[in-house]
């Protein structure tokens, strides 16, 4: 029974930043699609995705410095075109007579349209991060989560060096030394509520606690040491949200 409740709580905590405001970066390095995704996940968030017309317009605006055909975060998974953020693609701006029975997708520079090609081809690529905002009111961790999901998109996941750098620039104006982020300990492990892999880590000198005290199971970003640290989930702190392009931001 306890295990079932824990699993249900994890499912409730997980969120998808599918409506989040994204910033896209052209990476002028030649890689296969898989290696490009690895690079994006380590240094940004993921390969670029744009699931609707509004997101596509913003992506093409950010892609203005593209110098060659470049991979994006769309691939064929079991005969279903799927974005790397998990959404099934319902709107795809294919070039005429595409797709062509391959599994990975790139943006053609000349036409701003999408082509499919073998994932082992070598191309430049686009990475993205989600735009985040500091909320300078103080809430418990769950209060911060509720606020972000109601007014924005979600608590921020700092799963790459780029998102961490962005967060540090935002928290300089925080009214509290510690700022809540979307990192939680549950069922014996730390996890990002966005579902991102916990590979990039910036823990405090105490390190990643494998079994933190019951009242130290929510993570915050320390603006003085620029590291993550376990805190009491009921502590009232400022927090970082992922911005949403479909909600009014307060």
Automatic annotation (TrEMBL):
Record carries keyword Signal: yes
Signal peptide: 1-19
Pfam family, one: Lectin_C
Highest rank taxon of the organism: Eukaryota
Coiled coil residues, start to end: none
Domain C-type lectin: 24-128, 127-242
InterPro entries per the UniProt record, alphabetical: C-type_lectin-like (IPR001304), C-type_lectin-like/link_sf (IPR016186), CTDL_fold (IPR016187)
Keyword list, A-Z: Signal
Protein name from the UniProt record: C-type lectin domain-containing protein
The species this protein was found in: Triplophysa tibetana
